[in-house]
Amino acid sequence: MKPMLIGGEWVTTSHGVENINPSDISDVVDIYAQAGRAETQQAIAAAQAAAPQWALSGPQERHDILHRAGDEILARKQELGELLAREEGKVLPEAIAEVQRAGQIFLFFAAEALRQRGEIVASVRPGVGVEITREPVGVVGIIAPWNFPIAIPAWKIAPALCYGNAVVFKPAELVPGSAWALADILHRAGVPAGVFNLVIGAGSVVGQTMLDDERIDAITFTGSQATGTRVASASLPFMRKIQLEMGGKNPLVVLDDADLDLAVQCAVDGAFFSTGQRCTASSRLVVTQGIHDRFVSAVAERLASLRVGHALDAATHIGPVADAAQLAQDLDYIAIARSQGAHLRQGGELVRRETEGYFLSPALLTETLPAMRINCEEVFGPVASVIRVRDYEEALFVANDTEFGLSAGICTTSLKYANDFKRKSQAGMVMVNLPTAGVDYHVPFGGRKASSHGSREQGSHAAEFFTIVKTAYTAA
């Protein structure tokens, strides 16, 4: 049984949970010790004790630790990619690419550790000097989702450590393997005892214990809207900093003048790869009537050519859904959409393979209306709906007609419409002739409305969350 990392020591418990391969439910990846309330409190205490000294650590020490971690992640990307594909269900090339991104994130923040920024400005009062600096927040709780089991933890953990914070990390219950491997790498990279702690367990126990503890100074969370709301409510009494990423219902607008092949590629990649289990997935395809029929036919044809199967099979294009509960949710939403009048143009059926897994053919629903549940609620699976609109003006209105605002895209050859969409789209990230899913690690990530709350993740903008600004005045 794999242990947890608490206070610099590997800690086991009497209770362990199997990590099951969604491509082959007979395959147990490993068994991981589960934390209870006591272990979680122990981790928080360890982080609190270690935080003051780590806050005073030098930039070279932080750089070297993060750089060693990043180098090892990149050197082991094939091995770690296979582990990720096995426990989460991404096809191997996508899994390896995610591991590579995690390594790049650590190297980016290793460099950021050396870029200590501050300002010295003149006061409006004679004989007074002003210094503006940033200090770490303290103890940061990290609650990560299962869909990117190494990249999302990386883009939270690396900046937290870079800016001098101590960490208590709770990964999603479905994907403890990647989290354990990352903890092991950081431990051997030289993170001081207590600065980084891994606690694995149920959100109702581990996550709730973190929320209830006033020693947690900040929480960064990625997951569902409902859980994000609970994180916010629980954090308010402590006035702790919160950073929430809570999903989306992302539109991809396809205009009559779009390059058809490019639009199909953007739609299929954005909506269905990674089994559609991305918060930036193109779940709503908003298509103007002049290109609608050709676009739908081409997407359906492309989907029919994709092979769904075992994530480690080189012939597989789309892996399994993450678990039985997610598969049931996907099928429920397809059924609801059909009951409300949508047409299932392609896919949406269980797929049988040599191994027993959670395989679902990518579903394309047409003749949908904006008010249907399929167009209002996040499905988080290989399911996309098509909304037919008259023109660009209606497409823009429909694209923005959602409580979410994470990512949005447009396929067009018109510079006029592209620029107008970038300006008027109510999303935190806008893509032109690109899939809505797929972002760079060195620039801000985040959305608007119900998708996000708090400062942006990734890139140099991460400093806004993981640090506190201090202004110091000195008389000459």
Describe this structure in words.
Helix 8 links the parallel strand 10 and strand 11. The protein contains 14 helices and 22 strands. With 476 residues, the protein is of the alpha/beta class. It has 2 domains: 268 residues, Aldehyde Dehydrogenase, Chain A, domain 1 (3-Layer(aba) Sandwich); 182 residues, Aldehyde Dehydrogenase, Chain A, domain 2 (3-Layer(aba) Sandwich), CATH 3.40.309.10. The longest helix has 23 residues. Helix 2 packs antiparallel against helix 4 and helix 3 runs antiparallel to helix 6. The strands form 6 sheets. It has a 7-stranded mixed beta sheet, sandwiched between helices. Strands 9-8-7-10-11-21 form a 6-stranded mixed beta sheet, with helices on both faces. The protein has a 3-stranded antiparallel beta sheet with strand order 5-6-22.
Helix content range of the residues, please? 25-40%
Low-confidence stretches: none
CATH class of the largest domain: Alpha Beta
Instruction: Give the strand line-up of the largest sheet.
Output: 14-15-16-13-12-18-19
CATH 2nd-level architecture of the largest domain: 3-Layer(aba) Sandwich
Please, what is the CATH homologous superfamily of the largest domain? Answer: Aldehyde Dehydrogenase, Chain A, domain 1
What about the largest sheet? 7 strands, mixed
Query: How many separate domains make up the residues?
Result: 2
Provide the CATH topology of the largest domain.
Aldehyde Dehydrogenase, Chain A, domain 1
State the separation between the terminal residues, measured CA to CA. 61 Å
Helices, by number, come to 14
- Per DSSP E runs of 2 or more residues, the count of β-strands stands at 22
- Binned strand content: 15-25%
Query: What global shape is seen?
Result: globular
Q: Average pLDDT across residues? A: 97
Helix/strand/pairing category = alpha/beta
Radius of gyration: 23 Å
